[in-house]
Amino acid sequence: MKLLTHNLLSSHVRGVGPRGFPLRIQATEVRVSPVDFNPDFVTRMIPKMEWTALVEAAESLGHLSELPRELAEGYEKDEEFLRKVHHVLLEVEVVEGTLQCPESGRLFPISRGIPNMLLSDEEAAS
Amino acid sequence: KKMKRKELESFLQQVDGFEKPKLLLEQYPTRPHIAACMLYTIHNTYDDIENKVVGDLGCGCGMLSIGTAMLGAGLCVGFDIDEDALEIFSRNVAEFELTNIDMIQCNVCSLSDTMFKSFDTIIMNPPFGTKHNKELRYDLPASYRFHKKKTVDIEVDLIRFSFKDPPPHTDNLKQLKIYLK
């Protein structure tokens, strides 16, 4: 699971609504894999991201990579910054661990890089 | 360095399909020819793949996702309920050495409405015909613009939804394109 993907995920346990984001990561295995740097894609993604959640997630994995806690003006032209964002969004992967719904506490396991977000019928929203 | 449709199709012929398709989940592989035609149209006519974040709902073994990744998606995220299918999908991703794919095991029908607001494009070739499929609705506003385009040389409906006037709290939906085969 890449951190870009994590930033898009929220808990759908019944009743949690927007308080189901962000999911808290507990990782027992993290992998870093090279991905080709694409500045156009990274630049487009930044405004779509919940920045604080991204920074917290990266930090919780020990891969903060000097990301600032707040976006600075003109980041689109700062290649060094874009490369750091690229690294955090796409190259850091949680292989084994869990995601936790911040509201309900429900744990979702991550195994072989794949989060399992299946809910029982009672847990899912009606 | 534009990939031709036939090239894409021949790559997709290498994608492994279901080993034991599960009848209750209506699993069947999307055939490489159809996948190539569909993705080629989405990419070349609408430019909805390259550098975009794409979701593949009901991805199965990943035929559409792999094609999407090969056409230059920034990231393609596959969603499926079946771990056996996802295992084959993972194997396919490794064999193709693709680095722009992720996958999630879940029931897409019970995901929260806001989950997809940041995706640029959603593609699906979902199961049809069981009662659960009628619930495949996302918080779609009543006023959407509806396009229907036949693919190149086969009688397959490719339906493209785009949002003209999304309600205020779902501004991001304006950028979201949904492709349904």
UniProtKB/TrEMBL annotation, chain A:
One of its GO terms (cellular component) is nucleoplasm. One of its GO terms (biological process) is tRNA methylation. Pfam families: Trm112p. It comes from the Eukaryota. It is found in: Cytoplasm, Perinuclear region; Nucleus, Nucleoplasm. Keywords: Cytoplasm, Nucleus. Its main location: cytoplasm. InterPro entries: Trm112, Trm112-like. Gene3D superfamilies: 2.20.25.10. GO terms for molecular function: protein heterodimerization activity. Belongs to the TRM112 family. This is Multifunctional methyltransferase subunit TRM112-like protein.
UniProtKB/TrEMBL annotation, chain B:
One of its GO terms (molecular function) is rRNA (adenine-N6-)-methyltransferase activity. Residues 50-134 form the Methyltransferase small domain. InterPro entries: DNA_methylase_N6_adenine_CS, rRNA_MeTrfase/Polyamine_Synth, SAM-dependent_MTases_sf, Small_mtfrase_dom. Gene3D superfamilies: Vaccinia Virus protein VP39. Belongs to the methyltransferase superfamily. PrmA family. This is Methyltransferase-like protein 5. It comes from Sarcophilus harrisii (Tasmanian devil). The gene is METTL5.
